[in-house]
Design a protein that fits this description.
Elements: H1 2-19, E1 27-28, E2 33-37, E3 47-52, E4 55-60, E5 70-77, E6 81-91, E7 100-107, E8 111-119, E9 127-129, E10 139-142, E11 146-153, E12 160-169, H2 190-195, E13 209-213, H3 217-229, E14 236-239, H4 247-259, E15 263-267, E16 279-281, H5 288-300, E17 311-312, E18 329-331, H6 338-350, E19 362-364, H7 374-388, E20 394-396, H8 411-426, H9 428-441, E21 446-447, E22 456-458, E23 462-464, E24 474-479, E25 483-486, E26 492-494, E27 497-502, E28 510-513, E29 517-520, E30 534-540, E31 545-551, E32 565-574, E33 577-582, E34 595-603, E35 610-613, E36 616-617, E37 628-632, E38 637-646, E39 651-656
Parallel strand pairs: 1-5, 13-14, 13-20, 14-15, 15-16, 16-17, 18-19, 30-34
Antiparallel strand pairs: 2-12, 3-4, 4-12, 5-11, 6-9, 6-10, 6-12, 7-8, 7-11, 21-22, 22-23, 23-28, 24-27, 25-26, 25-28, 29-30, 31-32, 32-33, 33-39, 34-38, 35-36, 35-39, 37-38
Helix pairs in contact: 6-7, 7-8
């Protein structure tokens, strides 16, 4: 009888598969997405395959006037509906008369459904566009299952770059960065495929302060000592022309940096150095094989083969998903100077429609402020430092030695550098957790909304609005839905609208969403010296929120096998009661502390009548080895101290009104 039912079940499965088998097609609509790589057609009809900066695509070439330069892509749709059409493209030519390309959409190869034109962006980096030359969004109604095609016409004009074509049902899955993988196999959801792409996390020290110098050994020592004397944390040092230095210099400099636990690296011009460096800065344009070879070289320098390597390479390999396995990437091809360059870099990280948005750990060289006047120079440096501190990786690789020499950084600039490098140092648990989230979800640490390119979310708590205009001391900021607190003052803002805010020179406009839970460590000279047995947690009251703190050893690739500790912080407000739960730690890693001192700040809160931990009342004055709390009237802050908490046990905190 059992065999009979098994046979019936197998027959049903076969019939289901047979009845639902899709016809053979070049591309398929999968979960409402059609994704096409333009270069799949190869060189044909006056189109050639071209590598352009971050992309591979098809580039139109000049042809006879009566040659339409057509190229067609065919796909099969299973889910009818309204499909928005997106094109990843750019225009090589500045001729405004050629800034659009004609196309048509057909059913069954000959029934025309739509004829329109894409407005082409004229910039050095390809961009996703969904606008016609009249400025309207482009979509097509597909009324039934079947074969469809899209055809482009260059009309013999050269300079059009087609990289990718996306159809998205009801515009629900808008492409970002490099878009989704090709939909050539109906068994795989392109969104899941993109999420599963391997993303490696840089070593923990790379999330601190990385500086660059180019001089003799004695001068390098003086520059580093100057930074340290001013209380500025230095985690890594890029030594320019490193391979050209003699063995004695390398040995002595290595010993000096080792005494301060500062990592160091080399700028590679023609070859990989055979010195014991922690990272290498590769020339822009290095191919992916060389990047991988360099990464493995830095990885092998560690005592264990499981150590993490680090390369800092250009973004020219973004078109290949494997580039995410060799962090970090940098953008340094500044075509503008001064504040225009700052605006340009800000859009590179915050605009989802640019291919640079694909880079999970994008950084940039410090722009050369010597190209501008003295008055503008200092202001530009401060604004650039403020912006850099809220990038996934903060690099201060100057293009001029004068920045760190006498008459370079003024005391005021050094003060600003200290302010934001120290803040970043303390925020390491928050930043590193979001690095793990980037690996797990594919979502970057920096998130732009696609509408405003001079502001972005840094993780899930911070809204960052850099100043990009000389002399500006105020600006407009759009606050997403929710309630927001000014990180630098007591100002509050209701979300869902724009507010005009003040922006003093010494501070970047920075805001925190109500309900945010933000972990900090104590300041340490380097990230690797950070105290893992202490954690300060700020809770911004006014809404519910969560934070899943993720930690690992920071050195090995054990995290790729799931060896990382996770601690859930869950905050809620019920009938005036403030409730924070710190979950028992899930999993362990090598070197993890089993006990932790917590200092928890509930901000923008009224004085409570009592605080309970696991249903027991907490004292209001310090007692050795016991939890206690105080209230600061001026700041409206409840400060709760919990010493020696066992991380394997859950902690329930309830604040009574």
């Amino acid at each position: 009888m059992r065999i009979f039912f098994v046979c019936i079940y197998s027959i049903c499965i076969l019939l289901f598969v047979a009845c639902n088998q899709l016809p053979e097609a070049d591309y398929y609509e999968i979960e409402g997405v059609v994704s096409i790589e333009a270069e799949s057609k190869g060189n044909s009809n006056n189109w050639i395959v071209e590598h352009n900066y971050t992309n591979y695509g098809l580039l139109s070439t000049e042809a006879e006037a009566d040659d339409p330069g057509h190229i067609r892509y065919t796909f099969y749709v299973s889910n009818p509906g309204e499909y928005s059409i997106w094109l990843l493209s750019r225009l090589y030519d500045d001729d405004s008369a050629k800034n659009h390309i004609d196309f048509s959409v057909y059913k069954n190869g000959n029934l025309e459904l739509l004829t329109s034109s894409f407005q082409f962006p004229s910039r050095e980096i390809p961009e996703w566009v969904n606008k016609s030359k009249n400025g309207e969004g482009i979509s097509v109604t597909i009324s039934e299952k079947g074969f469809y095609s899209i055809e482009f016409y260059s009309h013999g004009n050269e300079g059009y770059l087609l990289d990718k074509i996306h159809f998205t049902l009801n515009n629900a899955r808008k492409p970002r960065g490099m878009g989704y993988p090709e939909t050539i196999d109906p068994r795989f959801d392109p969104v899941d495929q993109k999420r599963e792409q391997l993303i490696r996390i840089p070593p923990q020290w790379a999330f601190g302060g990385l500086y660059g110098v180019s001089s003799d050994e004695e001068t390098i020592r003086k520059k580093i000592e100057e930074l340290l004397d001013k209380g500025i944390p230095v985690d890594a040092l890029l030594i320019d022309n490193f391979p050209d230095k003699n063995d004695n210099q390398l040995r002595e400099l290595s010993q000096f940096l080792g005494q301060h636990e500062i990592r160091y690296g080399s700028r590679v011009v023609e070859r990989i150095p055979d010195t014991n460096v922690d990272f290498v800065l590769l020339p822009f344009g290095s191919d992916l094989d060389f990047v991988q070879e360099s990464y493995e070289m830095t990885r092998s320098q560690h005592e264990e083969r499981t150590g993490r390597g680090l390369t800092i390479s250009g973004i020219n390999n973004v078109y290949d998903e494997q580039f995410k396995g060799f962090p970090v990437n940098r953008y340094s091809e500044h075509q503008s100077t001064g504040f225009d360059a700052l605006k340009d870099q800000l859009e590179k990280v915050s605009n989802p429609r640019l291919t640079t948005y694909e880079v999970p750990f994008l950084t940039h060289d410090l722009i050369d402020p010597n190209d501008v006047g003295d008055g503008l120079r200092e202001e530009l440096l401060k604004r650039w430092i403020q912006f850099s501190a809220f990038n996934p990786v903060m690099t201060m690789f100057p293009s001029s030695d004068k920045l760190f020499s006498e008459g370079g950084f003024s005391e005021s600039v050094f003060d600003n550098l200290k302010k934001y490098s120290v803040l970043r140092n303390k925020l390491f648990p928050y930043i590193y957790t979001h690095a793990h989230f980037t690996r797990q979800s594919g979502e970057k640490m920096i998130q732009g909304d696609g509408l405003r390119f001079t502001q972005f979310m840094f993780g899930d708590a911070f809204l960052v609005a850099p100043i990009t205009d000389y002399g500006a001391r105020e600006r407009s900021v759009y606050f997403p839905e929710g309630y927001w607190y000014d990180y630098n003052s007591d100002n509050t803002y209701e979300g869902g609208r724009s507010w005009f805010i003040e922006a003093p020179l010494e501070s970047i406009p920075l805001y925190v969403k109500a309900g945010s839970v933000i972990p900090y460590r104590k300041f340490a000279p380097t990230i690797e010296k950070g105290d893992k047995s202490y954690l300060k947690v700020e809770v911004y009251t006014g809404d519910a929120g969560t934070f899943r703190l993720t930690e690992d050893d920071g050195e090995t690739e054990d995290y790729l096998r799931g060896i990382a500790a996770r601690t859930m912080f869950r905050y809620n407000e019920i009938q005036g009661h403030k409730i924070l739960t710190i979950g028992a730690v899930q999993r362990h890693y090598r070197g993890m502390v089993t006990e932790r001192d917590y200092e928890i700040h509930f901000l923008h809160a009224d004085r409570p009548s009592d605080i309970l931990i696991n249903e027991s009342s907490v004292a209001t004055s310090e007692q050795e080895g016991e939890a206690y709390w105080i209230y600061e009237d001026e700041k409206g802050a409840i400060k709760l101290f919990i010493p020696g908490a066992n991380r394997d046990e859950k902690i329930d905190i309830e604040i009574l009104p």
